[in-house]
Design brief:
259 residues, alpha/beta, eight-stranded mixed sheet, two-stranded antiparallel sheet, TIM Barrel, disordered C terminus
Length: 259
């Protein structure tokens, strides 16, 4: 059985790598670090090293055993493009995703420079969506690194959003997720930052997904923006036929929100 996820934009999580380290302000109150420490205390064997980066090869083929097609967030408890994850291991993860072609995989990284460096060594399957996290204007260069990759579907996770992101360069980007930080030490998110990004996405024809306002009580704060939820998703590319890759193209927006 897949490990179900409470993350609004995915259905399941798969962690062939666990553990990470902080590299930018968005990492300050990392939920994965807190969760890893809790699982270590509970005696969960995959978290015997706590939040120290650890390869989990015994987890590699797990998605192949999940027969029901679903959307899977890869490494919710780590970063696949961490410097200490060998290229050979990254390629093994991508090989599993290619073989499990009935699923849709979402990979997200803050290590965008390494992502761009390794892209030519990766055979990018059509069922893999690649994203980068951008929490403030200081890190928009990650978008250029993402754009340089061979990923068929490219997305941005602007969470936790810590400042305004005006004049986003959305060429070649298919999907944008926005969310505020949650927890008792959550840093505030300004409404104007969110509406600006929403409007930029609308002008660029990019799918927009508003995950949450966040704060100390994220359930109470909810995820309604201007009287509705925003649950747009990019449509996947056409499946590969006769062993040939589908050509990248502009993805129409599929809206799954409330009017």
């Amino acid at each position: 059985m897949a490990l179900g996820s409470g993350i609004e934009w995915t259905e399941a999580t798969w962690n062939p790598v666990t553990g990470c380290n902080k590299i930018s302000p968005g990492c300050k109150y990392c939920y994965a670090e807190r969760m890893a420490e809790r699982l270590q205390t509970m005696g969960q064997p995959n978290y015997r090293n706590g939040f120290e980066l650890t390869l989990q090869p015994q987890m590699l083929e797990l998605p192949l055993r999940w027969k029901r097609p679903q959307t899977i967030f890869v490494n919710s408890m780590s970063d696949l493009f961490h410097d200490h994850v060998p290229l050979e291991y990254i390629q093994r993860v991508f090989d599993v995703m290619r073989r499990a072609d009935w699923h849709r995989f979402q990979v997200l990284t803050k290590r965008a420079e390494r992502l761009a460096e390794l892209s030519s060594n990766i055979d990018w399957p059509n069922n893999v969506w690649m994203g980068v996290s951008v929490e403030s204007a200081d890190y928009t260069s990650r978008i250029d690194d993402l754009r340089a990759t061979g990923a068929r579907v490219k997305f941005l996770s602007l969470e936790p959003l810590l400042g305004p992101l005006e004049k986003l360069k959305l060429r070649g980007i298919d999907w944008v997720i926005v969310g505020g930080e949650s927890g008792h030490r959550a840093r505030p998110m300004d409404r104007a930052w969110v509406t600006s990004i929403r409007d930029q996405c609308a002008r660029a024809g990019v799918a927009f997904f508003f995950k949450q306002w966040g704060g100390k009580n994220k359930k109470k704060a909810g995820r309604v923006l201007d009287g509705r939820t925003h649950d747009e998703m990019p449509r996947a590319l056409e499946p590969v036929q006769s062993g040939r890759r589908a050509r990248p193209r502009a993805l129409p927006v599929v809206v799954r929100g409330q009017a």
